[in-house]
Write a structure and sequence with these properties.
The protein is mainly β. The protein has a domain of about 180 residues.
Length: about 290
């Protein structure tokens, strides 16, 4: 009796059905990648794995088809995100690089920025304050389960001359805060990816033609906080940058009923209250990691 080892069967199947290589993503994008694939993915099982000559194994396919962000949310220009299904949204900050020139030097100094978020048209709550040295692009600043019709809006401002700049939001029609999906071009009036002022933190999220290069289930939120002159080269929409990623499954172990995205019924360092209560220490995860 002749047998075909599993490795020979696998090699034959791979030759007949070549694998589709996944897109190469930056480390930051990989940290926030959705569980839903960008290309068809799945498993192929053969039973039995060892067969006699002249017999055929039973092949079972389990294929997960790709999705895109428009299957889950709608983007209302310039930047309001409207859920069209039950979905989890997680928000990360990619960069904070508002700056100004000093009179003594041509080297720009980094200014603090303030990122805020509004759920369902409510008050804007702060999710980030600081400059680029305070940015942790892997950390999820906010996680929320959204139902159809729920909305997310974003806003930002920075400190200039010891005063706050105007607070711009994604509901404003001036396109100071925009939400873009894969393949869209930032409305800067020039190719941002070819600009000498392109910040390194934004570089992995744009392709050579200046189009947004992110995962199919993500939204890139770009903010211009320093000028409202759309004809200026300084209007480059990279004073503050957020990445919003959507998924059908919860991105962590909490229930997402706090601003920091974890369940206050499972207290850790934060001494959270009962399930569903307002977290008295929203800046600290109440779930021991």
């Amino acid at each position: 009796m002749k047998t075909h080892p599993p490795t020979r069967i696998l090699a034959t199947l791979l030759a007949l059905f070549p694998a589709i290589a996944p897109d190469q993503a930056s480390a930051q994008q990989a940290a926030s990648a959705s569980r839903i694939p960008a290309t068809p993915d799945g498993l192929l099982n053969a039973y039995p794995s060892v067969v006699q000559t002249g017999t055929k194994p039973t092949l079972n396919w389990n294929i997960l088809h790709p999705s895109k962000v428009s299957d889950l949310v709608e983007v209302d220009p310039p930047g309001t995100l409207i859920a069209t299904s039950n979905v989890y949204a997680s928000v990360q900050i990619i960069g904070s690089k508002a700056g100004t020139m000093t009179s003594q030097s041509c080297t720009p100094i980094s200014l603090p920025t303030d990122a805020r978020l509004s759920f369902n048209g409510g008050a804007y709550a702060q999710i980030f304050y600081g400059n680029q040295s305070n940015v942790n692009p892997v950390k999820q600043l906010y996680i929320k389960k959204m139902q159809p019709g729920n909305t997310l809006d974003f806003g930002g401002r920075s400190v200039q001359n010891s005063n706050w700049t105007p607070f711009y939001t994604s509901r404003s029609s001036n396109f100071q805060v925009v939400s873009l999906t894969r393949g869209q071009t930032p409305p800067t009036g020039f190719n941002l990816s070819q600009s000498a002022t392109l910040n390194n933190f934004l570089r992995p999220y744009l392709d050579a033609s200046g189009k947004v290069n992110i995962g199919p289930l993500s939204v890139l939120v770009l903010m211009e906080l320093g000028t409202n002159d759309h004809n200026s080269q300084s209007f480059d929409l990279q004073d503050q940058v957020l990445l919003v990623t959507f998924s059908k499954k919860h991105p962590n172990n909490g229930h997402g009923n706090n601003l920091d995205g974890v369940d206050s019924s499972n207290p850790g360092k934060g001494k959270g209250g009962p399930n569903g209560a307002v977290d008295p220490s929203g800046g600290i995860d109440d779930e021991a990691r």
